[in-house]
Design goal:
- The chain is an alpha+beta fold.
- Helix content is 49%, strand content 18%.
- It is built from 21 helices and 18 strands.
- The strands form 5 sheets. The chain has a 6-stranded mixed sheet with strand order 15-14-11-18-16-17.
- This is DhaL domain-containing protein.
Length: 561
């Protein structure tokens, strides 16, 4: 019997399945980042973005599929993080516009919605590039139409959609040379493929537990630690914490005196899901790692022992931790919003991470510092909230990261204030842009003047390589330090200081006047002084400044003006 339509029940299941698929494979998608820097976060961004959409769907009481597509699109829009999350939100924005007011989705409705999603996503990107998520979306929609025209039912159409997405994903390295050089497919395209895979599996009843990417035990530790620290605990009340103990265990499967069950991933995960939330289960053939919030940590430990020996146990009382966090937030965040005299009647939002960078932006005129940057891309909703907190009618947003730009643009569109985005791609550009601000000028005049300032600074970043790779013919070894200048890797060196010195040398020209060195986590003031001395040896007329930024990921941020 052919399946002719997607009902409200089926659509809800599709969304849940795809959200779960993205969550389980987020780290695998992250690993496809072209640059071997410790900030590959496409999978995290897409997973969190789609989870926001799934939350809106779950909260909707409508029995109309069209309404649920609107909820999914709204949730994706407000939860969108990073460029990949924003583009994904645009795919489903178009999907929702096409499906609006539909009580159920027929095969024809589904095909039209997929096509509308492609059109909206392409329009949302200023310079659409093939070999990306856009290609995957387009090829998948084309296959859906072809399958529909052949008279296939809606399950087979969704299967054709997913398989075409998978095939298109494999061609992305042929369309983007850098992907071929590094030996990966497009990470955003991979994320969308998982979404369509989830849709098909939900409609067909197909189960793919064995196909979930299985990281190494070392990767498990990193994933669980990162997952635990993603939530914005400062927004909760301590009494709202339903499950009070953050419990982590690692089990060596098949070992131990209490083993009486053969490990099955689905059974194991489903059991733990009944006694807690925030569950993350990662397994390979030898080890399973668990993170769960529960009121009964003892039950988690005992259950783990039924499958093997406990080789790691960690239990934290989250209620006590949360009270400490709230106390710290109360101390640190009283002055989050500043009535900065330099800003006049404007609200100026700078996105940055690190107490030192926060102080520097405030001294330059920013009125609100939104914590974020590499590995911590704020969502559209986060930026809208920041705009609201400024309590200003005119707001300027400095994303300071190219992966935050699209989310900032979306926030500017949906917020109540008159907001503009100055497209700063680096911390240095954001700081330089503030030099072009005039509190007496109009919003558009300020945007133009501040955007012009972006071209006056060269931005350099020093960070560590997380894997061996080759980019633009340059061999990069894991744990080498890389000097990245305006997005291009120009230096690699196993010595951090030397990498920074060589990078600055590449950045200097006869017009260079000021070099600013900002040291963060992994860097030191003493080493920054040594870098300063080496730079002055290049040209004793250069003015070299050193500041403490406290930024993560990059030991040194260095700019040349």
């Amino acid at each position: 019997m052919k399946v002719e339509q997607i009902t409200e029940t089926e659509f809800r299941k599709m969304v849940v399945t795809s959200s779960d698929r993205l969550n389980k494979n987020a780290e695998f998608i992250n690993s496809l980042n072209v640059f071997p820097v410790p900030d590959g976060d496409t999978g995290t961004n897409m997973s969190l973005s789609f989870a926001s959409g799934a939350k809106y769907v779950a909260e909707s009481t409508s029995q109309n599929v069209g309404d649920l597509t609107q909820a999914l699109a709204k949730g994706l829009l407000m939860g969108a993080r990073g460029n990949s999350g924003v583009i994904l939100s645009q795919v489903f924005r178009g999907f929702a516009k096409s499906a609006a007011k539909k009580e159920v989705l027929t095969t024809a409705d589904l095909v039209l919605a997929l096509q509308a999603g492609v059109e909206t996503a392409y329009k949302a990107v200023m310079k659409p590039q093939e070999g990306t998520i856009l290609t995957v979306a387009r090829k998948a929609a084309e296959a859906a139409k072809k399958a529909k025209d052949q008279g296939l039912d809606i399950v087979e159409v969704m299967k054709a959609t997913y398989e075409a997405a998978e095939a298109a994903l494999k061609t992305t390295p042929d369309l983007l040379p850098v992907l071929k050089e590094v030996g990966v497919v497009d990470s955003g395209g991979q994320g969308l493929t998982f979404v369509y895979q989830g849709f098909y599996d939900s409609l067909s009843g197909n189960v793919r537990e064995d196909e979930v990417h299985k990281p190494t035990p070392a990767e498990m530790d990193e994933m669980v630690h990162a997952e635990h620290h993603k939530s914005a605990q400062g927004k909760l009340n301590t009494e709202d914490i339903k499950y009070g103990y953050c419990t982590e265990i690692m089990v060596r499967l098949g070992a131990g005196r209490l083993v009486d069950q053969k490990f099955d991933y689905a059974t194991f995960r489903n059991h733990l899901a009944q006694i807690g939330d925030s569950l993350l289960v990662i397994a390979d053939d030898e080890v399973v790692k668990v993170h769960v919030h529960t009121e009964h940590p003892g039950k988690v430990l005992a259950y783990g022992q039924e499958f093997g020996s406990l080789i790691k146990v960690k239990v934290d009382n989250m209620r006590l931790q949360h009270e400490t966090i709230l106390e710290k937030d109360e101390e640190e965040n009283v002055d989050d919003v500043h009535d900065n005299e330099l800003a006049g009647d404007y609200g100026i939002i700078a996105i940055a991470s690190g107490q030192g960078l926060t102080s520097m932006f405030q001294n330059l005129g920013a009125t609100y510092i939104l914590s974020g940057g590499q590995t911590m891309n704020p969502s559209t909703q986060d930026i809208v909230d920041a705009i609201d907190k400024t309590k200003k009618e005119k707001v300027i947003i400095l994303p300071n990261n190219k992966n935050i730009f699209l989310a900032a643009e979306q926030a500017a569109e949906v917020c109540d204030a008159d907001a503009v985005v100055v497209p700063s791609k680096t911390i240095a550009q954001g700081m330089t842009a503030l030099l072009g601000f005039n509190k007496d000028a109009s919003l558009e005049e300020n945007k133009a003047a501040m955007t012009d300032e972006l071209e006056t600074v060269i931005s350099g970043q020093v960070t560590i390589a997380v894997r061996d790779t080759t980019i633009d013919g340059r061999e990069i070894n894991k744990d080498d330090y890389m000097g990245i200048v305006d997005g291009d890797i120009v230096v690699t060196n196993p010595d951090r200081k030397q990498a920074a010195i060589e990078m600055v040398q590449r950045m200097l020209d006869e017009d260079s006047e000021v070099v600013t060195i900002i040291y963060g986590e992994g860097g030191t003031k003493a080493e920054a002084e040594e870098i300063k001395t080496a730079v002055e040896d290049f040209d004793d007329e250069l003015e070299v400044e050193i500041h403490q930024g406290d930024q993560p990921v990059y030991p040194y941020l260095i700019s040349v003006e």
